Amino acid sequence: xxxxxxxxxxxxxxxxxxxxxxxxxxxxxxxxxxxxxxxxxxxxxxxxxxxxxxxxxxxxxxxxxxxxxxxxxxxxxxxxxxxxxxxxxxxxxxxxxxxxxxxxxxxxxxxxxxxxxxxxxxxxxxxxxxxxxxxxxxxxxxxxxxxxxxxxxxxxxxxxxxxxxxxxxxxxx
Length: 173
What we know:
single chain; alpha+beta
C-alpha cells in the first residue's frame, strides 16, 4: 500500500502536462491578440477610405461654391438611368436641377451627376451629386446640393460619405 501511495504522490510526469497546458493557454492568448491586430488594421483601412471620401466630397462641393446661383445645375445627360444606385439614393429626385453645360461634361466636373475618380490613396470612388430646389415656407428658393461618395469595390446606397450644402439666390451675385 505504501508503494502505491508513494507512486500517486510522486511528481513524475507533471512537467510535461504543465508544459502542454501552458502552451495551450499561451496559444489562446496569442490568437486573441492576433484577432485584435486584424480588427485594428481593418478599422484603420476603413478610416483612411472615409477620410479620402470626405476630402473628395468637400472638393466637389467647393466646385459649386465657386459658381453663381443660376449656374448650379447638373447636365441631364450625365444622370444615370433607372435601377441604378444613383436613382435609389434618398437624395435623388425626378426634378433634379438640370441645365446644359457649356463644353463637355468631362471638362466640367460640377455638371457631372455621377463620375468615378481615383483618390490620393489610389482607390476608386464614385462621386454622385444631387441638386434639388426647395423653398422653405415664407422664404426664397434654395438649391440643395448633396454629394455622396461611394466605394466602387462595395457600392451601397448609403455610401462612405454624404455632404449637403444649401445655396440661395444671393450666391455668386
